[in-house]
Please model this.
Amino acid sequence: MAELRAENERMKAVPAQGSPSTPRAVWIVLGVASALGVMAVLSAFVVSGSTGEAAAIAMVLLMVVALTLATITLTVSRLLFVATPNEVLVISGRRVVAADGSVRGYRLVRGGRAMRLPLLERVDRMDLTAMPLEITLRNAYTKGGMIVEVTAHAVARIASDEPLLNNAVERFLGRDRQLVMDAAAQTLEGALRGLVATLSVEELRQDQPKIADAVLHEAECEFSRLGLELDVFKLAQVSTRDGS
Model:
């Protein structure tokens, strides 16, 4: 859990708006373009004594080629976006017809790359990494009327496949990651509170794997509506008001 929390804090620092990194090929092309320009200048100096006019023309042509290559490469590098394995690109701005015939205003790219249309499309990134959650249920009533406090640990994440991913995009795109975590935690808290009301203190303490499965089942529908998936849920502690 500590490692997941640390990873989550690191991912919070990543802005939602996508920004492509410059591929290695860009630097290679820029280097070649610069070399062509240098060679053109050197050639002009070498042959300027006899054919200065021809050398000047050659230099101008080579410089134009070099600048053109550099401009094209830089432009492409700003329009090319690459999705890492733990994220999905959401490219919005155009109408897209999905496989089921529905129409939406965005397309999704996961585990690949895509080009955006300048001025017409915007690229955002959605983080698919695990979200560690700590659930604390206070003043919950059991079947016997006892007031208990229940703590649990869970791991949730944004769904990585459609159509659940579409639900997450429509609800959480551009929102702070903490808001997604809060929504997941509140959903689990509600499911757990409802389940605790049907069990005694002894049942809560003795059959924890069964309780975890029941919470997973109870929260599944709401999680699907939000575009979330629950990977892990585990009860940590059940205590009564008198501390037992």
